Amino acid sequence: MSQPINAEELTVGKKAAIRLTVNGKSYELEIEPSRRLVDVLRCDLDLTGTKISCGVGRCGACMVLLDGKPFNSCLTMAYQCEGMRIETIEGIENKEITNAFLEEGALQCGYCTPGMVISLQGELEKNSHPTEEELKECLTGNICRCTGYGGIQRVLKRLEEERRKQ
Amino acid sequence: MLLNSHTTTHPWKVRPDGLEKVTGQLKYLTDMKTEGCLYGKIKRSGLPHARLIEVDTSKAEALPGVHAVLTSKDIPGLNGFGIADPNQPVFCEDLIRFEGDAVAAIAAESPETAEEAASLIRIKTEPLPVISSPEEALQKNAPRLHKEGNTLHTTSYKRGETEHVLKECSIVVEDSYDTPRQMHVFMETEGGLFVPEKDGSLTVFAPTQHGYKDRMQLARILGWSEAQIRIVSSPIGGSFGGKDELNVQPYGALLAVMTGRAVKIHYSREESVRAGIKRHPMKIHMKTGADKNGRILAHEVSIISDTGAYATLGGPVLNFATEHAIGGYDIPHVEVNGKAVYTNNGISGEFRGFGGNQVIFALEGQMDRIAEKLNVDPWSIRRKNLRQVHDYGPLGQRIVPNDGPRQVWKAIQQSPLWKKPSRERDREEPWIVKGRGAALAMHGSGLGYGIPDPSGGRLQLSESGKIEAAFGFEECGQGLISSMEIMLTEAFKCSTEDTKITIGDTALVPSSGSTTASRATNMVWKALQNMKQPFKEKLYRAASALTGESKENMQTGRGGIWKKGQKEETFVCSYKDLAGGEIVSETEFHFPVTPDAVTGGHYLYGSTAVVVEVEVNRLTGSVRVTGADHAVSAGKVINPIGYLGQIEGGSIMALGFTLSEDAIMKNGSYETPNMDTYLVPTIRDVPDTQRVDAVEELAEGDNYGPRGVGEIGSVALAPAIIQAVHAATGVRISSLPLQAEELVDERELLALMSEETREEQTG
Ligand code: FES
Ligand code: FES
């Protein structure tokens, strides 16, 4: 692992070499320290499954997992992720969540969906038998404008029930 | 029929575009870029009202990495756009009318460079007094925002003698209602990719609800023929009316054409808020009179809408509001006057519900006030005044026989919420009071009389042997692709593998009109009705030529053509066998309109009734909607998952409209520029479940097909919530979004506490 970057050594306009591990693949990038993770993912790495909507940490469309925990990639600077394990929606394979979303009608335009899936994935990774309430809690930072959360609540019910049976 | 995966008899079908969306594989148009594309940025005035003297772009042009800086001088064609009236300039020439007005656009090698270049553009201006409300705009000495003055549109409708009759009424209720400037908050902000092609044409990848209309408008701006432009317009990360009007397209197109390079633009949320359209804030005054039995005799309405700096659909929205201010009630004496007024505020335009939401809030509020005054049940007042199946429409126009309002009036009473007490105090936390309220609405679909509303579609056997349906509609998230697939497999009894759906690309689809006004599903259904038989005939003829079978004995089915009428059906030939021949059917028609020349009057309507339960905290004034159930009459349900989703989604959007959403403007400037200050509902703010009961029966002889439900879920919730709040607290709210302060009442708690202390002391 390379040395973590010290923020004080970074100057605006000067590019720095950053090594990111995204979905198990490692990338060496020359980027300005002022770049947000969301832009590096979407623009430099063309991983556009991570969405951007508010840019201020309010909507959750840009959610990614950093070392397994959900973070808003619009509030995260790329250099801060040096040495961390980044997972984006493209790296998540979770039929349990995917099928629930599809079968419960939990998406319409789908623009919020990757962020929702990431938040749930993060919760399920740390909590194998979550209650519906806990699942709801983990989605409070994800805004969906289309569904009115009807389908999404059906997903939460289902995930809780399925996990309880296990 | 209650809609959920267990009770529905219709296919609960996973949407075909779902998997790609859940896994993040789907490329939205704002996700696209090409190798070496440039980045576009728009320089906006930042001023609500000023004379524009000069735009100095020299510094921006000199910045390394900048490829073009365009201003009004660089527009080859028309410097204007707008669906109804192209009076919004692409770039301002001499007058700035709102803070989002564009003065220049830049194409540069990186978004950062484009941004920097924008900051280097200097504009010389002379500030003018800001008109921040319609009232100010209507004053005699107010500066004129457009050459025709400050009034965009007026409506007036009159039947009978309201003034005289109101005097004779046993009771009259009168109130003024205010509604907020709601934002669409589609999650995908505006943007797209603009690609100049080798043959000199231009391909536009940018979300819109009406690709053909964009093409027409862009051709006008570029001074090109429409055929030189191809618009790819789906999938869309949400629109709700907000992307029907051009947004980034003029800038992207001009920059791409001028630089000869592909240009990508994607708005930040702040830019989207400042530049984009909103729901019209309206001030509605209503005076309604009834006899002592609750029969409404007269209804006087005046509406003023703040349409902002430019026209867009301010006129049609006002027409819609005028019609829906009367609603599904039979009232003998009516007068409605409306005015849409220009101001220096952000632009108002089309938004789900199209002006219905605002006036239905007021109209239903009147119903509840009348009931209160007469001390009778508000639902019975409605019943007494509801239209009968053969009554005329709100504006006295003939409409398709419609019993929707009475159907939903009845159906909603099946909701478990209905049986709950109208007011209840929490035992443990006595400062929390629950209340129940209900409201109903009849809502027009299609654009209404006087606006061209053509539609059409095409069926063809594709080269790979699939039955391909091509329509000029867009997938905004509503599930159109799903609904089309269901209708297609039903029409041909084939499997989904036999079908292909093509939408959202002017190079591949015929013009079908706009994906708006809850019309797409209805129009696809109608087109299939027209094309199904002729298309089958063509298939049978080809199959007969191929196999020698007589075509009278054929039917379409899974995988191909089958023989019919025998015990054991036998396969004649596959669709693939028939591919390669010219098997095509096309249709063109107009959305059904009333035969009476009543501008804006609708012919087809859906209806809805909603019952809501709220919890009001009397200490903080906060309101939680704990239940909201809907009954909807819109004809046959095609796609239950989509239908349910539209109602649930529309409903929660209306919940925001009622409780928290307001794009506040001060002196022509947005004070709520992002989602940290403009609050849309989260999963914590919504009821756990919403029941949706679809009433599918249409009036006898109605064969106009299934009506769309894109809007109807959002139109009647506000008055139901407000009535529930009234039931809980006794407070009548007439201004949205509701302000918590109005509901705080510490006296109640003090009374309770002292009761308790008394009990403690005595006990
Ligand atoms: S884009 Fe990051 S939270 Fe909205
Ligand atoms: S599905 Fe469109 S925002 Fe959630």
UniProtKB/TrEMBL annotation, chain A:
It comes from the Bacteria. This is (2Fe-2S)-binding protein. SUPFAM superfamilies: 2Fe-2S ferredoxin-like (SSF54292), CO dehydrogenase ISP C-domain like (SSF47741). Pathway: Alkaloid degradation; nicotine degradation. The keyword Metal-binding applies. Keywords: 2Fe-2S, Iron, Iron-sulfur, Metal-binding, Oxidoreductase. The keyword Lyase does not apply. InterPro entries: 2Fe-2S-bd (IPR002888), 2Fe-2S-bd_dom_sf (IPR036884), 2Fe-2S_ferredoxin-like_sf (IPR036010), 2Fe-2S_ferredoxin-type (IPR001041), 2Fe2S_fd_BS (IPR006058), Beta-grasp_dom_sf (IPR012675), Diverse_Oxidoreductases (IPR051452). GO terms for molecular function: 2 iron, 2 sulfur cluster binding; metal ion binding; oxidoreductase activity. Residues 16-92 form the 2Fe-2S ferredoxin-type domain.
From TrEMBL, chain B:
InterPro entries: Ald_Oxase/Xan_DH_a/b (IPR000674), Ald_Oxase/Xan_DH_a/b_sf (IPR036856), Ald_Oxase/xanthine_DH-like (IPR016208), AldOxase/xan_DH_MoCoBD1 (IPR008274), AldOxase/xan_DH_MoCoBD2 (IPR046867), AldOxase/xan_DH_Mopterin-bd_sf (IPR037165), Xanthine_dehydrogenase_dsu (IPR017609). It is an enzyme of class 1 (oxidoreductase). One of its GO terms (molecular function) is iron ion binding. Pfam families: Ald_Xan_dh_C (PF01315), MoCoBD_1 (PF02738), MoCoBD_2 (PF20256). Its EC number is 1.17.1.4. Keywords: Oxidoreductase. SUPFAM superfamilies: CO dehydrogenase molybdoprotein N-domain-like, Molybdenum cofactor-binding domain. PANTHER family: XANTHINE DEHYDROGENASE, XANTHINE DEHYDROGENASE SUBUNIT D-RELATED. It comes from Alkalicoccus halolimnae. The gene is pucD. This is Xanthine dehydrogenase subunit D. Gene3D superfamilies: Aldehyde oxidase/xanthine dehydrogenase, a/b hammerhead (3.90.1170.50), Aldehyde oxidase/xanthine dehydrogenase, molybdopterin binding domain (3.30.365.10). Residues 23-129 form the Aldehyde oxidase/xanthine dehydrogenase a/b hammerhead domain.
